[in-house]
Amino acid sequence: MVTDAAVVVAALSTASALWLWTGPTTATTRLAKLTADHREPRWRSLPGLFTRQSPGRRAQAWRLASIELCQALSAELSAGRTPGEALTRAVAAVDFPDPAALRPIVAAARDGGDVAAALLASAPPQGGEGLRQLAACWDVSVTVGAGLAALVERVASTLRAAQAHRQDVAAQLAGPRTTARMLAALPALGLLMAAALNMHPLDFLLGSLPGFACLVTGIILDACGLWWTSRMAARAQG
């Protein structure tokens, strides 16, 4: 029995080492994320699929679109167009996750309405930071008379820096996330190895009350560990 236990421990250690050796490194993950920024976002080429995206991916899409909007608006203003015309052209040039949400902004910019209020109303709760900052810039420009182009360019620079920080944090968290998934899968691997060694672990787990209690407790603890790791990673990414 001691020899069998030693074999199981050795097998688990070998599997863990192979996982860590072949798993993605932080540098590899960061390189993939940086190169992915130059590819066309998936939600643009598959608009029907976007509605099934997670809230995190939807917020990410809004952030990227907001950066593009600020860059396009800054370019239009630098070309000498009026703020309303520049915003209308900039919105038309950017593929937003929900184009219908931008219609009040275009209407306000075209008809001389309250653009700042329209930007605030159209900004989603998650991922709408760029639109809210752009609304503040528009309000300051209208109220104080400050140069809108300079304000928009500063907002675009801030949004780009924040996006780069989120990507860096996500790359740094890739290793811990992979380790957490590996640790969550190790109990199942242990059961398979025990069964291969003719230890009949399922007979104990499913055939007796103490074994079933151990099984339920293990599953709950495993799920809680994954949930807690995911929550900490989400908080770290902001």
> Which value, in Å, is the CA radius of gyration?
26 Å
Tally of separate helices: 12
Sheet bearing the most strands, described?
none
Query: What is the 3D shape?
Result: elongated
Uncertain runs = 1-51
Proportion of strand residues: under 5%
Mean pLDDT: 76
Provide the succession of SSEs. Answer: HHHHHHHHHHHH
The total of beta strands comes to 0
The percent of residues in helical segments reads over 70%
Structural class: mainly alpha
Distance separating the two termini: 49 Å
Chain-wise SSE layout:
Elements: H1 2-22, H2 26-36, H3 42-45, H4 47-50, H5 55-78, H6 83-93, H7 103-111, H8 115-122, H9 129-144, H10 148-196, H11 201-207, H12 209-237
Helix pairs in contact: 1-10, 2-10, 5-6, 5-9, 5-10, 6-7, 7-8, 8-9, 9-10, 10-12, 11-12
Describe what this molecule looks like in 3D.
This protein is an all-alpha fold. The chain has a domain at 42-164. Helix content is 81%, strand content 0%. The protein has twelve helices and no strands. The chain has helices spanning 2-22, 26-36, 42-45, 47-50, 55-78, 83-93, 103-111, 115-122, 129-144, 148-196, 201-207, 209-237. Helix 2 (26-36) packs across helix 10 and helix 5 (55-78) runs parallel beside helix 9. The longest helix is centred in the last third of the chain and has 49 residues, at 148-196. The chain is elongated and about 80 Å long. The chain starts with a helix and ends with a helix. Mean pLDDT is 76; it is low at 1-51.
Overview in brief:
With 238 residues, the protein is an all-alpha fold.
Descriptive terms for the model:
single chain, 238 residues, mainly alpha, 12 helices, 81% helix, 0% strand, elongated
